[in-house]
Protein backbone atom coordinates (compact mmCIF):
# COMPACT_ATOMS: atom_id res chain seq x y z
CA UNK A 1 0.00 0.00 0.00
CA UNK A 2 1.36 3.46 -0.87
CA UNK A 3 0.85 6.86 0.71
CA UNK A 4 -1.87 7.60 -1.80
CA UNK A 5 -4.02 5.05 -0.08
CA UNK A 6 -3.57 6.58 3.36
CA UNK A 7 -6.31 8.67 4.90
CA UNK A 8 -5.79 11.72 7.09
CA UNK A 9 -7.38 12.39 10.48
CA UNK A 10 -8.91 15.73 11.31
CA UNK A 11 -7.05 15.95 14.63
CA UNK A 12 -3.59 15.61 13.13
CA UNK A 13 -1.47 17.44 10.53
CA UNK A 14 -2.06 16.60 6.87
CA UNK A 15 1.23 14.70 6.63
CA UNK A 16 0.27 12.16 9.30
CA UNK A 17 -0.92 8.86 7.79
CA UNK A 18 -3.54 6.56 9.22
CA UNK A 19 -6.10 4.04 8.08
CA UNK A 20 -5.39 1.08 5.83
CA UNK A 21 -3.88 -2.16 7.09
CA UNK A 22 -2.97 -1.93 10.76
CA UNK A 23 0.09 -3.80 12.04
CA UNK A 24 -0.74 -3.23 15.70
CA UNK A 25 -3.58 -2.41 18.04
CA UNK A 26 -6.22 0.03 16.85
CA UNK A 27 -6.01 3.28 18.83
CA UNK A 28 -8.49 6.10 19.23
CA UNK A 29 -7.86 9.72 20.14
CA UNK A 30 -4.60 11.57 20.59
CA UNK A 31 -1.93 11.51 17.89
CA UNK A 32 -1.91 7.83 16.97
CA UNK A 33 -0.78 6.61 13.55
CA UNK A 34 -2.51 3.33 12.79
CA UNK A 35 -0.44 2.31 9.76
CA UNK A 36 3.30 2.79 9.35
CA UNK A 37 5.37 1.10 6.64
CA UNK A 38 8.66 2.98 6.07
CA UNK A 39 10.08 0.16 3.95
CA UNK A 40 7.43 0.97 1.31
CA UNK A 41 9.33 3.50 -0.80
CA UNK A 42 6.19 5.15 -2.12
CA UNK A 43 4.77 5.59 1.36
CA UNK A 44 8.12 6.88 2.62
CA UNK A 45 8.58 9.36 -0.21
CA UNK A 46 5.06 10.81 -0.20
CA UNK A 47 4.24 10.87 3.50
CA UNK A 48 6.46 8.89 5.84
CA UNK A 49 9.68 10.89 5.56
CA UNK A 50 8.05 14.18 6.58
CA UNK A 51 6.41 12.63 9.62
CA UNK A 52 9.57 10.79 10.64
CA UNK A 53 11.70 13.95 10.31
CA UNK A 54 9.32 15.98 12.48
CA UNK A 55 9.40 13.35 15.20
CA UNK A 56 13.17 13.05 14.93
CA UNK A 57 13.73 16.78 15.45
CA UNK A 58 11.55 16.88 18.56
CA UNK A 59 13.03 13.63 19.85
CA UNK A 60 16.51 15.11 19.56
CA UNK A 61 15.50 18.17 21.57
CA UNK A 62 13.89 16.17 24.36
CA UNK A 63 16.75 13.69 24.54
CA UNK A 64 19.22 16.60 24.54
CA UNK A 65 17.60 17.99 27.70
CA UNK A 66 17.60 14.49 29.20
CA UNK A 67 21.34 14.11 28.65
CA UNK A 68 21.97 17.51 30.22
CA UNK A 69 20.06 16.50 33.34
CA UNK A 70 21.79 13.10 33.37
CA UNK A 71 25.20 14.80 33.37
CA UNK A 72 24.28 17.61 35.80
CA UNK A 73 26.45 16.21 38.57
CA UNK A 74 29.55 16.14 36.41
CA UNK A 75 29.12 19.93 36.52
CA UNK A 76 27.79 20.28 40.07
CA UNK A 77 30.94 18.67 41.54
CA UNK A 78 32.99 21.49 40.01
CA UNK A 79 31.05 23.90 42.25
CA UNK A 80 31.69 21.77 45.35
CA UNK A 81 34.80 23.24 46.97
CA UNK A 82 36.56 22.24 50.23
CA UNK A 83 33.65 23.59 52.27
CA UNK A 84 31.58 20.58 51.11
CA UNK A 85 34.03 18.16 52.73
CA UNK A 86 34.01 15.62 49.85
CA UNK A 87 37.32 14.10 48.70
CA UNK A 88 38.16 13.22 45.04
CA UNK A 89 37.17 9.56 45.49
CA UNK A 90 33.81 10.66 46.89
CA UNK A 91 33.20 12.96 43.93
CA UNK A 92 33.95 10.21 41.42
CA UNK A 93 31.40 8.01 43.20
CA UNK A 94 28.92 10.88 43.20
CA UNK A 95 29.06 11.31 39.42
CA UNK A 96 28.80 7.53 39.03
CA UNK A 97 25.36 7.40 40.67
CA UNK A 98 23.39 8.92 37.76
CA UNK A 99 25.21 6.56 35.40
CA UNK A 100 24.11 3.54 37.42
CA UNK A 101 20.47 4.58 37.68
CA UNK A 102 20.31 5.75 34.08
CA UNK A 103 21.67 2.43 32.85
CA UNK A 104 19.11 0.42 34.83
CA UNK A 105 16.21 2.64 33.72
CA UNK A 106 17.01 2.14 30.06
CA UNK A 107 15.32 -1.28 30.07
CA UNK A 108 11.85 -0.17 31.28
CA UNK A 109 12.11 3.04 29.26
CA UNK A 110 12.56 0.95 26.12
CA UNK A 111 9.28 -0.88 26.69
CA UNK A 112 7.46 2.30 27.76
CA UNK A 113 7.38 3.47 24.14
CA UNK A 114 5.10 0.62 23.10
CA UNK A 115 3.09 0.71 26.33
CA UNK A 116 2.28 4.44 26.27
CA UNK A 117 3.22 5.57 22.74
CA UNK A 118 6.40 7.33 21.67
CA UNK A 119 4.89 10.81 21.82
CA UNK A 120 3.10 10.21 25.12
CA UNK A 121 6.17 8.75 26.79
CA UNK A 122 8.34 11.63 25.54
CA UNK A 123 5.99 14.01 27.36
CA UNK A 124 6.01 11.93 30.55
CA UNK A 125 9.77 11.40 30.58
CA UNK A 126 10.40 15.10 29.93
CA UNK A 127 8.19 16.23 32.79
CA UNK A 128 9.95 13.72 35.07
CA UNK A 129 13.21 15.64 34.56
CA UNK A 130 11.81 18.42 36.74
CA UNK A 131 12.22 16.20 39.82
CA UNK A 132 16.04 15.82 39.91
CA UNK A 133 16.48 19.45 38.82
CA UNK A 134 14.26 20.89 41.56
CA UNK A 135 15.55 18.59 44.30
CA UNK A 136 19.17 19.38 43.44
CA UNK A 137 18.40 23.10 43.74
CA UNK A 138 16.92 22.47 47.20
CA UNK A 139 19.89 20.58 48.71
CA UNK A 140 22.98 21.90 46.91
CA UNK A 141 24.79 23.75 49.70
CA UNK A 142 27.62 23.08 52.19
CA UNK A 143 26.52 21.11 55.22
CA UNK A 144 24.24 18.71 53.30
CA UNK A 145 25.15 15.11 54.07
CA UNK A 146 27.05 13.04 51.52
CA UNK A 147 24.28 10.42 51.62
CA UNK A 148 21.75 13.07 50.60
CA UNK A 149 23.96 14.12 47.71
CA UNK A 150 24.21 10.49 46.57
CA UNK A 151 20.44 10.07 46.60
CA UNK A 152 19.81 13.32 44.76
CA UNK A 153 22.49 12.53 42.17
CA UNK A 154 20.82 9.16 41.64
CA UNK A 155 17.58 10.95 40.73
CA UNK A 156 19.37 12.51 37.76
CA UNK A 157 19.58 9.01 36.29
CA UNK A 158 16.09 9.49 34.82
CA UNK A 159 17.76 11.63 32.17
CA UNK A 160 19.78 8.61 31.06
CA UNK A 161 16.65 6.54 30.59
CA UNK A 162 15.39 9.03 27.99
CA UNK A 163 18.01 7.84 25.53
CA UNK A 164 16.60 4.31 25.36
CA UNK A 165 13.00 5.35 24.78
CA UNK A 166 14.02 7.98 22.24
CA UNK A 167 16.18 5.57 20.23
CA UNK A 168 13.52 2.84 20.31
CA UNK A 169 10.92 5.33 19.11
CA UNK A 170 13.00 6.73 16.24
CA UNK A 171 14.14 3.24 15.22
CA UNK A 172 10.48 2.44 14.46
CA UNK A 173 10.00 5.55 12.31
CA UNK A 174 12.85 4.96 9.82
CA UNK A 175 13.52 2.32 7.16
CA UNK A 176 16.55 0.07 7.55
CA UNK A 177 18.50 1.86 4.82
CA UNK A 178 18.34 5.14 6.77
CA UNK A 179 18.59 3.93 10.36
CA UNK A 180 22.33 4.60 10.70
CA UNK A 181 21.98 8.28 9.91
CA UNK A 182 18.70 8.76 11.80
CA UNK A 183 19.83 6.93 14.95
CA UNK A 184 23.21 8.63 14.82
CA UNK A 185 21.60 12.06 14.50
CA UNK A 186 19.13 11.32 17.28
CA UNK A 187 21.82 10.06 19.62
CA UNK A 188 24.36 12.72 18.64
CA UNK A 189 21.88 15.54 19.18
CA UNK A 190 21.08 14.06 22.57
CA UNK A 191 24.73 13.55 23.47
CA UNK A 192 25.38 17.25 22.86
CA UNK A 193 23.40 17.86 26.03
CA UNK A 194 26.56 16.84 27.93
CA UNK A 195 28.88 19.59 26.60
CA UNK A 196 26.06 22.14 26.63
CA UNK A 197 25.46 21.78 30.37
CA UNK A 198 29.23 21.83 30.89
CA UNK A 199 29.50 25.07 28.90
CA UNK A 200 26.69 26.53 30.98
CA UNK A 201 28.58 25.53 34.12
CA UNK A 202 31.70 27.24 32.76
CA UNK A 203 29.69 30.40 32.06
CA UNK A 204 28.24 30.46 35.57
CA UNK A 205 31.58 29.78 37.29
CA UNK A 206 33.31 32.40 35.15
CA UNK A 207 30.70 35.10 35.79
CA UNK A 208 28.72 34.50 38.99
CA UNK A 209 31.34 32.31 40.67
CA UNK A 210 31.48 28.78 42.07
CA UNK A 211 29.03 29.66 44.86
CA UNK A 212 26.03 29.81 42.50
CA UNK A 213 25.31 26.33 41.05
CA UNK A 214 21.56 26.94 41.24
CA UNK A 215 21.76 29.23 38.23
CA UNK A 216 22.57 26.18 36.07
CA UNK A 217 19.55 24.35 37.43
CA UNK A 218 17.26 27.36 36.95
CA UNK A 219 18.10 27.51 33.25
CA UNK A 220 16.86 23.97 32.66
CA UNK A 221 13.42 24.24 34.26
CA UNK A 222 11.82 26.22 31.37
CA UNK A 223 13.69 24.09 28.81
CA UNK A 224 12.22 20.93 30.32
CA UNK A 225 8.72 22.41 30.17
CA UNK A 226 9.28 23.49 26.55
CA UNK A 227 10.40 19.99 25.56
CA UNK A 228 7.27 18.46 27.08
CA UNK A 229 4.95 20.98 25.42
CA UNK A 230 6.51 20.59 21.95
CA UNK A 231 6.32 16.80 22.21
CA UNK A 232 2.66 16.97 23.23
CA UNK A 233 1.76 19.27 20.33
CA UNK A 234 3.77 17.88 17.43
CA UNK A 235 4.98 14.29 18.00
CA UNK A 236 3.11 11.10 17.06
CA UNK A 237 2.50 7.63 18.50
CA UNK A 238 2.87 4.56 16.28
CA UNK A 239 0.13 2.00 16.92
CA UNK A 240 2.04 -0.82 15.14
CA UNK A 241 4.75 -0.56 17.82
CA UNK A 242 3.55 -2.90 20.55
CA UNK A 243 5.24 -4.49 23.52
CA UNK A 244 6.29 -8.05 22.98
CA UNK A 245 7.67 -9.78 26.07
CA UNK A 246 8.52 -12.71 23.85
CA UNK A 247 10.76 -10.40 21.81
CA UNK A 248 12.57 -9.35 24.97
CA UNK A 249 13.17 -12.98 25.90
CA UNK A 250 14.28 -13.82 22.37
CA UNK A 251 16.64 -10.84 22.31
CA UNK A 252 18.10 -11.82 25.69
CA UNK A 253 18.74 -15.35 24.39
CA UNK A 254 20.39 -14.09 21.23
CA UNK A 255 24.23 -14.09 21.56
CA UNK A 256 24.50 -11.05 19.29
CA UNK A 257 22.67 -8.97 21.89
CA UNK A 258 25.41 -9.58 24.43
CA UNK A 259 28.23 -9.22 21.91
CA UNK A 260 26.85 -5.83 20.92
CA UNK A 261 26.43 -4.93 24.60
CA UNK A 262 30.17 -5.46 25.07
CA UNK A 263 30.98 -3.33 22.03
CA UNK A 264 28.63 -0.62 23.25
CA UNK A 265 30.41 -0.60 26.60
CA UNK A 266 33.58 0.18 24.68
CA UNK A 267 32.03 3.03 22.69
CA UNK A 268 29.14 4.65 24.57
CA UNK A 269 30.41 3.55 27.98
CA UNK A 270 33.65 5.37 27.18
CA UNK A 271 31.85 8.48 25.99
CA UNK A 272 29.56 8.90 28.99
CA UNK A 273 32.14 7.73 31.54
CA UNK A 274 34.80 10.11 30.25
CA UNK A 275 32.26 12.94 29.99
CA UNK A 276 31.36 12.63 33.66
CA UNK A 277 34.96 12.18 34.86
CA UNK A 278 36.93 14.59 32.63
CA UNK A 279 36.69 17.63 34.93
CA UNK A 280 37.62 15.65 38.03
CA UNK A 281 40.62 14.08 36.29
CA UNK A 282 41.89 17.52 35.27
CA UNK A 283 41.45 18.85 38.80
CA UNK A 284 43.10 15.94 40.57
CA UNK A 285 45.82 14.87 38.16
CA UNK A 286 46.80 18.23 36.70
CA UNK A 287 45.80 20.55 39.58
CA UNK A 288 43.38 22.60 37.47
CA UNK A 289 41.02 24.98 39.26
CA UNK A 290 37.27 24.50 38.77
CA UNK A 291 37.22 27.32 36.22
CA UNK A 292 40.25 25.93 34.36
CA UNK A 293 38.73 22.44 34.34
CA UNK A 294 35.33 23.71 33.18
CA UNK A 295 36.99 25.61 30.33
CA UNK A 296 38.27 22.30 28.92
CA UNK A 297 35.74 19.62 29.85
CA UNK A 298 33.15 20.51 27.21
CA UNK A 299 35.48 20.12 24.22
CA UNK A 300 35.67 16.32 24.14
CA UNK A 301 31.94 15.62 24.69
CA UNK A 302 31.04 18.27 22.11
CA UNK A 303 33.24 16.78 19.39
CA UNK A 304 32.20 13.24 20.29
CA UNK A 305 28.54 14.18 19.99
CA UNK A 306 28.96 15.99 16.69
CA UNK A 307 30.70 13.06 15.00
CA UNK A 308 28.21 10.42 16.14
CA UNK A 309 25.97 10.90 13.06
CA UNK A 310 29.12 10.67 10.95
CA UNK A 311 29.78 7.25 12.48
CA UNK A 312 26.26 6.20 11.52
CA UNK A 313 26.69 7.54 8.00
CA UNK A 314 30.03 5.76 7.55
CA UNK A 315 28.42 2.55 8.84
CA UNK A 316 25.59 2.92 6.31
CA UNK A 317 28.18 3.15 3.54
CA UNK A 318 31.01 0.81 4.59
CA UNK A 319 29.42 -1.46 7.20
CA UNK A 320 29.18 -0.90 10.93
CA UNK A 321 31.50 -3.77 11.80
CA UNK A 322 34.36 -2.36 9.74
CA UNK A 323 33.97 1.13 11.20
CA UNK A 324 33.67 -0.28 14.72
CA UNK A 325 36.86 -2.33 14.37
CA UNK A 326 38.79 0.67 13.05
CA UNK A 327 37.44 2.75 15.92
CA UNK A 328 38.63 0.35 18.60
CA UNK A 329 42.08 0.15 17.00
CA UNK A 330 42.35 3.94 17.01
CA UNK A 331 41.00 4.16 20.58
CA UNK A 332 43.76 1.82 21.67
CA UNK A 333 46.37 4.12 20.13
CA UNK A 334 44.80 7.21 21.70
CA UNK A 335 44.76 5.51 25.09
CA UNK A 336 48.48 4.79 24.70
CA UNK A 337 49.03 8.53 24.18
CA UNK A 338 47.00 9.31 27.32
CA UNK A 339 48.97 6.78 29.38
CA UNK A 340 52.25 8.34 28.24
CA UNK A 341 50.98 11.87 28.98
CA UNK A 342 49.77 10.79 32.43
CA UNK A 343 53.19 9.36 33.22
CA UNK A 344 55.09 12.51 32.23
CA UNK A 345 52.38 14.90 33.50
CA UNK A 346 52.02 16.64 30.13
CA UNK A 347 48.65 18.37 30.00
CA UNK A 348 48.80 19.33 26.27
CA UNK A 349 49.60 15.76 25.18
CA UNK A 350 47.00 14.41 27.61
CA UNK A 351 44.33 16.69 26.11
CA UNK A 352 45.18 15.60 22.57
CA UNK A 353 44.88 11.92 23.46
CA UNK A 354 41.80 12.31 25.66
CA UNK A 355 39.86 14.45 23.18
CA UNK A 356 40.76 11.92 20.47
CA UNK A 357 39.13 9.26 22.66
CA UNK A 358 35.94 11.33 22.74
CA UNK A 359 35.89 11.74 18.97
CA UNK A 360 36.56 8.06 18.36
CA UNK A 361 33.96 6.94 20.89
CA UNK A 362 31.43 9.17 19.10
CA UNK A 363 32.23 7.55 15.76
CA UNK A 364 32.00 4.12 17.37
CA UNK A 365 28.65 4.95 18.97
CA UNK A 366 27.10 5.68 15.59
CA UNK A 367 28.62 2.59 13.99
CA UNK A 368 27.68 0.10 16.72
CA UNK A 369 24.08 1.30 16.97
CA UNK A 370 23.71 0.99 13.21
CA UNK A 371 24.83 -2.64 13.49
CA UNK A 372 21.94 -3.67 15.74
CA UNK A 373 19.02 -3.52 13.25
CA UNK A 374 21.29 -4.82 10.48
CA UNK A 375 22.28 -7.89 12.49
CA UNK A 376 18.69 -8.86 13.23
CA UNK A 377 17.68 -8.24 9.64
CA UNK A 378 20.47 -10.62 8.64
CA UNK A 379 19.15 -13.12 11.19
CA UNK A 380 15.76 -12.92 9.53
CA UNK A 381 17.33 -13.77 6.17
CA UNK A 382 19.12 -16.70 7.77
CA UNK A 383 15.73 -18.01 8.83
CA UNK A 384 14.51 -17.84 5.25
CA UNK A 385 12.28 -14.80 5.74
CA UNK A 386 11.94 -12.20 3.00
CA UNK A 387 10.28 -8.85 2.38
CA UNK A 388 7.88 -7.55 5.01
CA UNK A 389 8.22 -10.69 7.13
CA UNK A 390 11.98 -10.16 7.40
CA UNK A 391 11.49 -6.46 8.20
CA UNK A 392 8.98 -7.23 10.96
CA UNK A 393 11.29 -9.84 12.50
CA UNK A 394 14.23 -7.41 12.39
CA UNK A 395 12.26 -4.55 13.97
CA UNK A 396 10.82 -6.84 16.64
CA UNK A 397 14.15 -8.11 17.93
CA UNK A 398 16.25 -5.00 17.31
CA UNK A 399 13.80 -2.84 19.25
CA UNK A 400 13.94 -5.17 22.24
CA UNK A 401 17.71 -5.60 21.99
CA UNK A 402 18.34 -1.84 21.92
CA UNK A 403 17.03 -1.47 25.45
CA UNK A 404 19.30 -4.20 26.80
CA UNK A 405 22.33 -3.04 24.83
CA UNK A 406 21.80 0.59 25.80
CA UNK A 407 21.47 -0.32 29.48
CA UNK A 408 24.64 -2.42 29.55
CA UNK A 409 26.55 0.19 27.56
CA UNK A 410 25.56 2.93 30.00
CA UNK A 411 26.76 0.79 32.89
CA UNK A 412 30.15 0.86 31.18
CA UNK A 413 30.24 4.54 32.14
CA UNK A 414 29.73 3.49 35.75
CA UNK A 415 32.70 1.13 35.47
CA UNK A 416 34.89 3.94 34.12
CA UNK A 417 34.06 6.26 37.01
CA UNK A 418 34.61 3.51 39.57
CA UNK A 419 37.93 2.65 37.90
CA UNK A 420 39.01 6.28 38.17
CA UNK A 421 37.89 6.39 41.80
CA UNK A 422 39.95 3.34 42.69
CA UNK A 423 42.92 4.50 40.61
CA UNK A 424 43.15 7.88 42.34
CA UNK A 425 42.45 6.31 45.73
CA UNK A 426 45.30 3.79 45.41
CA UNK A 427 47.83 5.41 43.05
CA UNK A 428 46.92 9.10 43.18
CA UNK A 429 46.76 9.06 39.38
CA UNK A 430 44.46 7.96 36.58
CA UNK A 431 47.17 5.96 34.83
CA UNK A 432 46.17 2.50 36.16
CA UNK A 433 42.59 3.17 35.05
CA UNK A 434 43.71 4.05 31.53
CA UNK A 435 45.75 0.83 31.33
CA UNK A 436 42.59 -1.14 32.12
CA UNK A 437 40.67 0.81 29.46
CA UNK A 438 43.35 -0.05 26.90
CA UNK A 439 42.89 -3.75 27.68
CA UNK A 440 39.13 -3.32 27.20
CA UNK A 441 39.58 -1.79 23.75
CA UNK A 442 41.88 -4.62 22.70
CA UNK A 443 39.23 -7.15 23.76
CA UNK A 444 36.43 -5.24 22.00
CA UNK A 445 38.44 -5.02 18.78
CA UNK A 446 39.24 -8.72 18.86
CA UNK A 447 35.56 -9.59 19.44
CA UNK A 448 34.43 -7.32 16.58
CA UNK A 449 36.83 -9.01 14.18
CA UNK A 450 36.19 -12.53 15.46
CA UNK A 451 32.38 -12.37 15.39
CA UNK A 452 31.59 -10.07 12.47
CA UNK A 453 34.59 -9.82 10.17
CA UNK A 454 36.68 -13.00 10.43
CA UNK A 455 36.35 -15.10 7.24
CA UNK A 456 34.81 -18.53 7.86
CA UNK A 457 36.44 -21.80 6.80
CA UNK A 458 36.43 -22.06 3.04
CA UNK A 459 34.95 -25.00 1.23
CA UNK A 460 32.03 -25.62 -1.03
CA UNK A 461 30.31 -22.59 0.57
CA UNK A 462 33.27 -20.29 -0.04
CA UNK A 463 31.19 -17.82 -2.03
CA UNK A 464 29.09 -17.19 1.06
CA UNK A 465 31.65 -17.24 3.86
CA UNK A 466 34.05 -15.04 1.93
CA UNK A 467 31.49 -12.29 2.34
CA UNK A 468 31.56 -12.64 6.14
CA UNK A 469 28.48 -14.83 6.69
CA UNK A 470 28.66 -17.19 9.64
CA UNK A 471 28.41 -20.95 9.13
CA UNK A 472 24.69 -21.04 9.75
CA UNK A 473 24.17 -18.26 7.26
CA UNK A 474 26.29 -20.12 4.73
CA UNK A 475 24.27 -23.23 5.38
CA UNK A 476 21.08 -21.39 4.61
CA UNK A 477 22.65 -20.31 1.34
CA UNK A 478 24.12 -23.66 0.37
CA UNK A 479 22.07 -23.71 -2.79
CA UNK A 480 24.11 -20.82 -4.19
CA UNK A 481 22.23 -17.85 -2.76
CA UNK A 482 24.20 -15.40 -0.66
CA UNK A 483 23.73 -15.57 3.11
CA UNK A 484 23.66 -12.53 5.41
CA UNK A 485 26.82 -10.42 5.31
CA UNK A 486 27.63 -9.34 8.85
CA UNK A 487 30.53 -7.21 7.62
CA UNK A 488 27.93 -4.95 5.99
CA UNK A 489 25.57 -4.51 8.96
Question: Could you give the topology of this structure?
Answer:
Elements: E1 32-33, H1 41-70, H2 72-79, H3 88-116, H4 118-128, H5 130-139, H6 146-155, H7 158-173, H8 179-191, H9 193-207, H10 214-234, E2 237-238, H11 245-253, H12 255-285, H13 290-297, H14 299-306, H15 308-318, H16 320-344, H17 347-382, H18 387-427, H19 431-453, H20 462-465, H21 471-476
Parallel strand pairs: 1-2
Keywords, separated by commas or semicolons:
489 residues, mainly alpha, Growth Hormone, Chain: A, two-stranded parallel ribbon, 21 helices, globular
Q: What share of the residues lie within helices?
A: over 70%
> How many β-strand stretches?
2
CATH class: Mainly Alpha
Low-pLDDT stretches = 1-14, 18-24, 457-485
Which structural class is indicated by helix and strand composition? Answer: mainly alpha
Span from first to last CA?
Answer: 27 Å
Our count of domains comes out at: 1
How many helices in DSSP terms?
21
Strand order of the largest sheet: 1-2
CATH topology: Growth Hormone, Chain: A
Overall, the morphology is globular
Q: Average pLDDT value?
A: 85
Describe the sheet with the most strands: 2 strands, parallel
Helix and strand pattern? EHHHHHHHHHHEHHHHHHHHHHH
CATH architecture classification name = Up-down Bundle
General description of the model:
Helix 12 packs antiparallel against helix 13 (290-297), helix 12 (255-285) runs parallel beside helix 18 (387-427) and helix 15 packs across helix 16 (320-344). The two termini are 27 Å apart. The chain is mainly α and 489 residues long. The model is unreliable at 1-14, 18-24 and 457-485 (pLDDT under 50). The chain is globular, with a radius of gyration of 23 Å. The chain has helices at 41-70, 72-79, 88-116, 118-128, 130-139, 146-155, 158-173, 179-191, 193-207, 214-234, 245-253, 255-285, 290-297, 299-306, 308-318, 320-344, 347-382, 387-427, 431-453, 462-465, 471-476, and strands at 32-33, 237-238. It has a two-stranded parallel sheet with strand order 1-2. It has one domain (32-454): MFS general substrate transporter like domains (Growth Hormone, Chain: A), CATH 1.20.1250.
